[in-house]
Design a protein that fits this description.
Layout: E1 8-15, H1 21-37, E2 41-44, H2 51-60, E3 62-65, E4 77-79, H3 87-95, E5 99-101, H4 105-119, E6 123-127, H5 133-139, E7 147-150, H6 153-158, E8 167-171, H7 177-190, H8 204-217, E9 222-226, H9 232-243, E10 248-251, E11 267-272, H10 278-291, E12 293-300
Helix pairs in contact: 8-9
The structure holds iron/sulfur cluster.
Length: 317
């Protein structure tokens, strides 16, 4: 197609978007482990929920498995950014495996809070999504029965607890800020003495990406979120855009874009989940530029400068 006849499309690109400090750190840990120990390095679970990232690390010598039993003796293993139940490092030690923990420090913080609350005799109500590895990891920090999962306001209404006056709550780091506020209101209404260690534990990256997509959603005809279908924070970005009344779609790569979606779209919003690298945003913009005269504008709602330290031992690698 001749450039002169391309229709125009305006792109509003949300900022912040894409990689957060926890994802950056987790990927770096795998790369440094391969450098230091040589390939292969085993990784329990997808290091972060993004196929592009996982495939890139596989090409460098990482092998991804779901359980420790799949890791042969004598090779290092990395635990993913989502965190693991306590039983996992314990089993690694038992087998004499050397492991590196890429759990995001903000997830580890929730783990320590859970331990402290249970040690203080509190029963924990955990707001999160059943089956997500972060939830499994956090539940695995405390004895079975000391934590109860709720996902919705309806779950709160159905709750039965051992002692209504001895409760505390914690949350998954990648929830919807608005949905969580509603669940918290319901919890506080039903259990006025529930202890809140923090307002909630939704992390800075999740909050910032939701605020950023909200800022563009009202001004565009469609929002595309780059992220994986199993990425909690990416799914929440779709919901936040839709809540603003704008259709939104999750895609993993530019190749998944169906140009039929863009019929009648003059202004397109783009963002990326915390586990999606910027290269995938550029790939999407390039694909759009094949058919459209693209006018890009970044809409920045805040600037992030957070970086997490690497685990001891790897820093000097
Ligand atoms: Fe850590 Fe938040 Fe990134 Fe998850 S989304 S890895 S909790 S900074």
């Amino acid at each position: 197609m001749n450039d002169a006849v391309k229709p125009m499309i305006e792109l509003l690109i949300a900022a912040p978007r894409g990689f957060c400090a926890g994802v950056d750190r987790a990927i770096r840990i795998v790369e440094l482990a391969i450098e230091r120990y040589g390939a292969p390095v085993y990784v329990r679970h997808e290091i972060v929920h993004n196929k592009f990232v996982v495939d890139t690390l596989k090409a460098q010598g990482a092998i991804f498995v779901e359980e420790l039993d799949q890791v042969p003796d004598g090779v290092p293993v990395v635990f993913s950014a989502h965190g693991v139940p306590k039983a996992v490092p314990a089993k690694a030690v038992q087998r004499g495996l050397s492991y590196l923990d890429a759990t995001c420090p903000l997830v580890s913080k929730v783990h320590r809070q859970a331990e402290r609350l249970v040690a203080a005799g509190r029963h924990i109500i955990f707001i999160g999504h059943a089956g997500h590895p972060e939830v499994i990891g956090t539940f695995g920090q405390v004895p079975e029965g000391d934590m109860t999962l709720v996902e919705t306001v309806e779950d709160v209404a159905r709750l039965t607890v051992p002692d209504p006056d001895n409760l505390a709550f914690l949350t998954q780091t990648t929830l919807s800020v608005e949905d969580t506020a509603a669940v918290l209101d319901a919890l506080r209404a039903r259990f006025p003495t529930i202890v809140a260690p923090h307002a909630d534990d939704i992390c800075y990256a999740t909050t910032n990406r939701q605020t950023a997509v909200k800022a563009i959603a009202g001004s565009v005809d469609l929002v595309l979120v780059i992220g994986a279908p199993n990425s909690s924070n990416s799914l929440r970005l779709v919901e936040v855009a839709e809540r603003e009344g704008t259709p939104a779609r999750l895609i993993q790569r530019a190749a998944e874009l169906d140009f039929d979606w863009l019929a009648g779209v003059g202004s397109l919003g783009i963002t990326a989940g915390a586990s999606a690298p910027e290269i995938l945003v550029r790939e999407l913009v390039d694909r759009l530029a094949e058919r459209f005269d693209v006018v890009e504008r970044e809409v920045e709602t805040t600037r992030e400068s957070i970086a997490f330290k690497l685990p001891r031992g790897l820093e000097a690698a």
